[in-house]
Amino acid sequence: MVLPVLRLALSCSCQTAGRNIQRTPLRQWLLRRGQTTVTSVRTGAIPNAASDRVLGRWLLGCSGLVLGAVVLGGVTRLTESGLSMVDWHLVKEMKPPQTQAEWENEFSKYKQFPEFKIMNHDMTLTEFKFIFYMEWGHRMWGRLVGLAYILPTVYFWKRGYFSRSMKPRVLGLCGFVVFQGLLGWYMVKSGLEEKPESYDIPRVSQYRLAAHLGSALLLYCSSLWMGLTLMLPANRIPDSRSFLQLRRFAKVTGGLVFLTALSGAFVAGLDAGLVYNSFPKMGERWIPDDLLAFSPAVKNMFENPTTVQFDHRILGIGSLTAITGLYLFSRRVHLPRRAKIAIGCLTAMAYTQVVLGISTLLLYVPTSLAATHQSGSVALLTFAIWVLAELRKVVK
Fold first, then answer.
1. Can you tell me whether residue 41 is helix, strand or coil?
2. What are phi and psi of 45, to 5 degrees?
3. In a 3-state reduction of DSSP, which class is residue 282?
4. Cα distances (angstroms) measured from residue 201 to each of 73, 121, 192, 275, 319
5. What are phi and psi of 100, to 5 degrees?
6. How many other C-beta atoms lie within 10 A of the C-beta of residue 198?
7. How many CA atoms lie within 13 A of 183 on its CB side?
């Protein structure tokens, strides 16, 4: 008597479970796409391909926000707004001054620091509001970037979207976002310090500026790479000798593009774009007399505006040459259509970026053109990452 009852109970429970599965959104999602299998994870069952697309879109969206932060940061520096907020609070500063008294108080704090005393001593409150809002907007955008990384990470982690190999990478991205915010304030502090022995225009340390930009570019490249590799299926290209050479060539070229973009931070930090506004020569010479004016010689690479501009020119021309060589070499290799498009876009952007750089130099660094040139460097880096994603090795 007991056994038939148990069999009946088990049969009913299985039928009920089957009906529940049919009603789930996941089951409906699979039926609409003609699929019948799922990948089981610790907290539930989700389609592997679907989860990759979700995570890929999220990471590409995050990389887009980082791109916006880099562009906005460049405009903030070009408008000399970066030192307008003289303190840092994670939550308190999210609300800008509202009343006249609050604005006067903020302006009085700004008046105590070198930028106002040396450069902006005749600035009005209206002019101060403009540079304040520029820096405030940059900081708020940075907080938006942080939320865009951290909150979805918590959600996806709880839902079991991350594979074991992806978890440390995502945690690394979130940690890097926090580090980037702290590094930004560390950079700003260098421009607020009193330097009694110097009467130069107050500016942030070019070393800290390069570190801030470099970390932002690393965050951008990492997010973009992860997003693209999740979204784009790997091309199954035979590992011929010519293809392997092309892949190595592309990696070296991508590194050169990154280094050129990073050298732009030293150009910006030292206002090196204003020392020799001629091309292709620097003044009347190919190699200027003050190229090695500082001692020791290595100091010129990071602190001499002439050398910094010279290095940036060489790196820019070197990047253009490498990308042109990559394009010509790629025509000898049988590649999928998507990879050819990526290399073509990289080449077109490289020539556009060089034209923008030369124009910015000859026209004495107008803000709009300089901002476009800085944005172009990130666009060029974007296409370089796309090329590498298309040529990546297929994991077997």
1. strand
2. -120, 120
3. strand
4. 19, 12, 11, 15, 32
5. -60, -40
6. 10
7. 17
DSSP assigned state of 234:
P
Token pair listed for 201: 């225009």
Torsion angle of alpha carbons 86, 179, 315, 300, nearest 10°?
60
> Which of left, alpha, beta for 340 (phi over 0: left; psi -120 to 50: alpha)?
alpha
Instruction: Give the Cα separation of 328 and 164 in Å (integer).
Output: 40
Closest by CA position to 386, among listed 341, 356, 350, 335: 341
Q: Whole-angstrom Cα distance, residue 393 to residue 396?
A: 9
Question: Which of 50-54, 89-93, 190-194, 383-387 reaches the highest mean pLDDT?
Answer: 383-387
**Does the structure show a pLDDT above 90 at 273?**
yes
Distance from C-alpha of 70 to C-alpha of 376, rounded to nearest angstrom: 11
Q: Quick one: tokens of 187? A: 């950079």
Question: What pLDDT, in 10s, does the model give residues 333-361?
Answer: 999 999 999 999 999 999 999 999 999 99
**Residue in 86, 177, 194, 67 with CA at minimum distance from that of residue 136:** 86
d(CA 387, CA 379): 13
What's the CA gap between 343 and 354, in Å, rounded?
Answer: 17
Structure tokens at 69: 């932060």
Would you call 46 helix, strand, or coil by DSSP? strand
Query: Does an H or E element contain 230, and which?
Result: helix 206-231
Report the percentage of the chain scoring pLDDT > 70: 87
